[in-house]
Amino acid sequence: MALHPNSSLPVALPIGDALAQSEPLVRLQALLRESNARFDVIRPLLPAALAVQVRPGPVDEQGWALLAGNTAVAAKLRQLLPRFEAALQQQGWKGSAIRIRVQSS
Length: 105
Prior knowledge:
By secondary structure, the chain is of the alpha+beta class. It has one domain (15-102): GMP Synthetase, Chain A, domain 3, CATH 3.30.300. Helix content is 48%, strand content 18%. The chain has a 3-stranded mixed sheet. β1 and β2 (63-68) form a beta hairpin. It is elongated, with a radius of gyration of 19 Å.
């Protein structure tokens, strides 16, 4: 660890460097990019009034989550799941389950 000149404090790393040096953070960034990329695929399939109530959620071993603003939005998203899955498969995300979660306030 490098120390700041004339001080016993460590030299601060730029955030990009710190993120790049942490394997868990590199993995988290990759998962965030993947979630956003999946959301970009399904966004055009969302009715405008619904789109403002939906956010991309986490990607994990079981699949991907969509975060719904309320239970009514979650119900509509569940109806649209076959369309979302088909669009994702066309873009190369095969066999990945989509979970719908109601986002708590």
